[in-house]
Amino acid sequence: FLEAFESLLRFAENRTSSLFETAYRPMAKEAAEPVKELFTDISLYILGAETTVESAVLRFFDSLFPLVYSRLINPGITDLSEDYTECLRLTRQDINPFGHYSKNMVTELSKSLWASRMLSQALSLGIEVINTTEHAALSKECSRALVRMQYCPHCQGLTLIRPCVGYCLNVMRGCLASVSELDAQWREFISTLEYLANEMAASHELEMALSGIWNSINEAILHAQLNGPQLSATVDKVCGQPKQQEGNLSSANIVPVKEVTETQTFVMAHTSLNNKRREFINYMKRSRTFYASIAERLCDGDLVMRDSSTCWNGEDVV
User: Which positions, given as ranges, span the membrane (predicted)?
Assistant: First the structure.
């Protein structure tokens, strides 16, 4: 299930990288690292790291603005020192060169990634619970009861006799009393997983939000280009005027793109996650009564005598 998340993230990252390579080639190489950091932050957020979608997105746009300003708005800039770059990063927060597109991206991603993050944390918790109860310690009383149930008939030479069903259930329920107490919480846990999976499939559509990142970034860059003269005037006041080449280069050859990758790959990834989600919830529903019925599961099959009228009741053959 988490592999499907990662597959979608890689798909969205490649799609975003293609945007720069296709439409904004002058800054494609330098934009590669901020793009990679953005999707790494998103992945860490889904996996439960102490970060926020807003901080990840705004950090990306902080890193993007110096590139847009020096490669697209003023492509003649030759001296992009660390101090000047940092000034541009800080100025981005005040002059908002990307308009409402950066905030919209935060809103869309926060909605969809929240359900994915919660589901990921819930899955980790479920694994922890299962791993803990898999190695439940047995009390001395339980060990004695198990020996009496399994091996006491051997003392009478009855090596093929198996325990009666009712006797097995009594022993197992006594041994697993502490584990079966998880039943109510486990049922609630399954219900929560269903809710989160349904949220992901409804209004918090992870696939659509991730696949739309490239378009939000494209619109944000176009907005900054259209407002280039005003941005330059403000930046010159705050950060000073950088060195320029003779005859400022034009950025008119930058053409916005409508689509940067094949849709088929995304559809396959989308279908994969949808199928995983559906299979997973159906599977978890079947395990809703797992901790309540664990004794019955253990006393089913070869452990007890089902197809015979003769069985061991702990004292004698009946």
Answer: none
